[in-house]
From TrEMBL:
Residues 450-469 are annotated as: Disordered. InterPro entries: O-antigen_ligase-rel_domated (IPR007016), WaaL-like (IPR051533). The chain crosses the membrane at residues 12-30, 37-58, 103-120, 127-150, 170-196, 208-227, 233-253, 274-291, 369-389, 410-427, 433-451. It is found in: Membrane. Its main location: membrane. This is O-antigen ligase-related domain-containing protein. Pfam families: Wzy_C. Residues 218-378 form the O-antigen ligase-related domain. It is a multi-pass membrane protein. Keywords: Membrane, Transmembrane, Transmembrane helix.
Amino acid sequence: MGSYYGEYRWPLLYVSLAAGIMLTIVPTGARLKRGRLGMVVLALSLLALAAQGIWMWWNARWDFVQQSTAVSGGVPWSMLPVENVPFPDMPGAAAKNEAWDRLTYICPALLLIWGVARWVSRKPALGIWICQTVFVTGALVAVLGLAMRWTNAEAAYWMSAEEHSQYNLFFATFRSPAIATVYMNIALALGLSLFLRALCGVLRDRRGLGFSMLYLVGVVVLFNGVMGAGSKAGMVMAGITLILWIVMNWRALWDVLKQSASLLPSGSPLERNLLFGAVALILILSGLSWAETTVVRWQDAMESDYQTLDARSAINTVQIKMMKDPDWGVLGFGPGSFHPLFPYYSHNAELKGIVVYAHNDHFQTLVEWGWVGFVLFVVLIAGACLVLLSHSYAAEKGGLSRRGRVMQRGMFIAILVSLIHACVDFPYQIESIAITLAVLLGVAWGGVGYGRRSSKKPKTEQEEEVVPA
């Protein structure tokens, strides 16, 4: 995982495309018994998005050519007209090469959503494995980033500090601490639910306590990673993640707390309380170990009178101006058009430097994909969240086990918090995070095929039948 560019990005894209194709064409070995309407809605939405993106690229009007000096009006590049536009009177992307750059990861992501949903709808246990993979990867990102912080590394291991000194706020494999915290907060939400799910299993089966403690260690590492990265938004999102997770799972947490004393040799509630207190103290102290980083980041923001927020607000104002342009239609300016077009609309905006990302993925999506594409993305994401919530609060006798519901809530929080963070940063413009979101959306949409628990089956069989992620 990480934020790569140039030749560094292609291995992830090739692997994602291959995985999407395999998950789509390889037989699952099971028929979809229910949820066919939901899968039809998903398929149509994905096809419509892919068709819109490919059409805008194919019918593009211009090519984006970067220059070393300003070309005209202070714009450091030129837009060269594309020869032989297939349908010049119909919508097309503003920059063909930038549209292709975006489609090289958006199309594999869309394919992954379908492939993962197809398999999870028939084999729900696959979703758990996916969540575990994201969690472990996030923990490894946190470990690498913290190691870099502790050793005062000057740059990420794959980047030259001398050539790219502007990227002094790297973290692990990410060039931006804010983007790193998006991924770690996704893993944190999943890790919390994996930990609680494991504890519920321990109370039921009286085994596996050591494995659940590994989840707890990973959660502590991720929390430290978010604090140590130095992103103000990331810290806030970590707090929101913890609050949402506690609120949504308070019943399960309370039941685990009441029954957990039975796991101790003495069965003493006092020893249990001391153990939980020690764990809470470790979490608090580990977080406070990064207090200096946290205080410095917020102090710098206050001393600068929150200039970064002012810049983001100015960018949003320019994007509204872009959407008022008559050339902006229901299909938008095309994928990847924000960066090359932005300077032509920002003459009067008090912004310095080149703006590559809007730092608001929702606005940028609307600018590039128009109302049609934006609504289709809403269908994909909101539909996944509705499926997760419907399973999260379904009655246990007619729906998922408690362990399954805990995981549904963890995925919902992971997706929701990343969406909130996307209001002030650009996580979905980074290939690794966009593909991670696609996989989680696929797991969520796969929930339309989950079965109902049958009272005629033994409890163990019921649990195995509906072990969803």
